[in-house]
């Protein structure tokens, strides 16, 4: 898996433009996707995107997971950032969906995140990440 990136004080706060603004501006290369917006609207524009920031206004709102997987499965290779109410125990699941960067509202403990990522080294089903399921490794 690619190295995790966490927003720092010197990194951009947000993607900067809304989905509507992105679709109207042919030069835009980054977008902020809200939970009620359809990630599939970005598919024709994947080649010019360098950052998609997916908003998580509350940790209970899981629509961003679907947006991430849709974009990764469509071939998006740029930075995919989960922003907002992101909790440490969600990071492993967000990684499986394709997120590689995080901008949590509250700071996360690095040791806790590392421990949570290491709890289950094997995966059992395919996802948007590149991990090969354990059954496939065992049985080719």
**The first-level CATH class name:** Alpha Beta
Radius of gyration: 15 Å
**Terminal residue distance:** 21 Å
Largest sheet at a glance? 5 strands, parallel
CATH architectural arrangement: 3-Layer(aba) Sandwich
Give the strand content: 15-25%
Shape: globular
Number of helices: 5
Total of domains: 1
| Number of separate strands | 5
CATH domain topology: Rossmann fold
Mean pLDDT: 85
Sequence of secondary-structure elements: EHEEHEHEHH
The portion of residues assigned to helices is 25-40%
Unreliable segments of 5+ consecutive residues: none
Give me the secondary-structure category: alpha/beta
Q: Write out the strand line-up for the largest beta sheet, numbering strands in chain order.
A: 1-5-4-3-2
Explain how this protein is built:
This protein is α/β, with parallel strands linked by helices and 140 residues long. It has a single domain (5-139), classed as Rossmann fold, CATH 3.40.50. The protein has five helices and five strands; from the N terminus they run βαββαβαβαα. It has a five-stranded parallel sheet. β3 (51-56), α2 and β4 form a beta-alpha-beta unit. α2 packs parallel to α3. The two termini are 21 Å apart. The mean pLDDT is 85.
Map the helices and strands.
Elements lengths: L4 E2 L12 H6 L5 E4 L17 E6 L6 H11 L5 E6 L6 H7 L3 E4 L5 H9 L15 H6 L1
List its salient traits:
140 residues; alpha/beta; Rossmann fold; 5-stranded parallel β-sheet
């Amino acid at each position: 898996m690619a190295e995790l990136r966490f927003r720092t004080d010197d990194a951009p706060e947000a993607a900067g433009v809304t989905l509507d603004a992105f679709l109207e501006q042919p030069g835009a290369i980054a977008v902020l996707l809200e939970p009620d917006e359809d990630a599939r609207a970005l598919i024709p524009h994947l080649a010019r995107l360098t950052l998609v920031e997916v908003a998580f206004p509350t940790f209970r709102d899981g629509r961003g997971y679907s947006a991430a997987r849709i974009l990764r499965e469509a071939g998006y290779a740029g930075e995919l950032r989960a922003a907002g109410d992101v909790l440490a125990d969600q990071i492993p699941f967000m990684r499986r969906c394709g997120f590689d960067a995080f901008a949590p509202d509250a700071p996360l403990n690095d040791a806790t995140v590392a421990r949570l990522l290491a709890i289950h080294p094997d995966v059992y089903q395919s996802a948007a990440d590149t991990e090969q399921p354990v059954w496939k490794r065992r049985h080719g």
